[in-house]
Automatic annotation (TrEMBL):
Keyword Transmembrane helix in annotation: yes
Record-linked InterPro entries: PAP2/HPO (IPR000326), PAP2/HPO_sf (IPR036938)
Name of the protein in question: PAP2 super protein
SUPFAM superfamilies documented for this protein: Acid phosphatase/Vanadium-dependent haloperoxidase
Domain Phosphatidic acid phosphatase type 2/haloperoxidase: 44-174
Pfam families linked: PAP2
Keywords: Membrane, Transmembrane, Transmembrane helix
Xref: Gene3D superfamilies: Phosphatidic acid phosphatase type 2/haloperoxidase (1.20.144.10)
Claim: Transmembrane helix is one of the keywords in the record: yes
Transmembrane segments: 43-60, 100-117, 129-150, 156-176
Length: 192
């Protein structure tokens, strides 16, 4: 939504759209539009990062054919337990199993994309965002482990895949220079 809103403010030109701008200022929508226009690249990064992460998790789920613990013979199911690398197929779906890596855990870990936006601005709370997304993913994953639908390794691997996907997306968007700044330096603008 923010990404879509970011395209509105630059279209409004003072002198030509004074009425509309005045109405937006009165409705207190103008500050939101200015903010989204100023941070369009970050909003686009978040959308693309979430899409890349979700795509990578889906790819691994469909190309490894790993069954959940409750579906394996170890825990009363009918399917044999296998490791992800035993079934991996790069170009074709490996089978019907869709348990590895943990999808719920990856939903929590996906918030790590916000960490990279915070790194770009050297925000001093960036590490708190990283820790919070890690804890959220661990809670989601552990809940599914307790329910019998995942092994803990599924959660760990979801975190690794999400981290690498978000990191590569951030490097593509921002470059190493912006992400390698020390967090103690407080700036309002990212390095360009």
């Amino acid at each position: 939504m923010g990404l879509l809103l970011s395209f509105i403010w630059p279209l409004l030109k003072p002198g030509r759209n004074d009425r509309v701008i005045g109405l937006l200022e009165t409705a207190r929508v103008a500050p939101l539009l200015r903010f989204t226009a100023r941070h369009r690249r970050d909003l686009l990064f978040i959308v693309v990062s979430f899409a890349v992460i979700t795509g990578m998790i889906h790819f691994f789920k469909s190309h490894t054919s790993i069954y959940c613990p409750v579906e394996t013979t170890l825990y009363g199911g009918t399917m044999e337990k296998k490791e992800w690398f035993e079934n991996f197929s790069l170009f074709h779906e490996a089978g019907a199993g869709r348990c590895w890596p943990g999808g719920h855990a990856s939903g929590g870990f996906t918030m790590v994309a916000l960490y990279f936006v915070a790194r770009r601005y050297c925000w001093r709370h960036a590490k708190a965002i990283l820790y919070a997304s890690t804890v959220l993913g661990a809670i989601y994953g552990t809940t599914r482990v307790v329910q019998g639908w995942h092994f803990m390794s599924h959660t760990l691997w979801a975190g690794v895949i999400v981290w690498l996907s978000a990191l590569l997306t951030a490097l593509a968007f921002y470059g190493w220079r912006q992400l390698a700044q020390p967090l103690e330096t407080r700036t309002d603008k990212p390095l360009n």
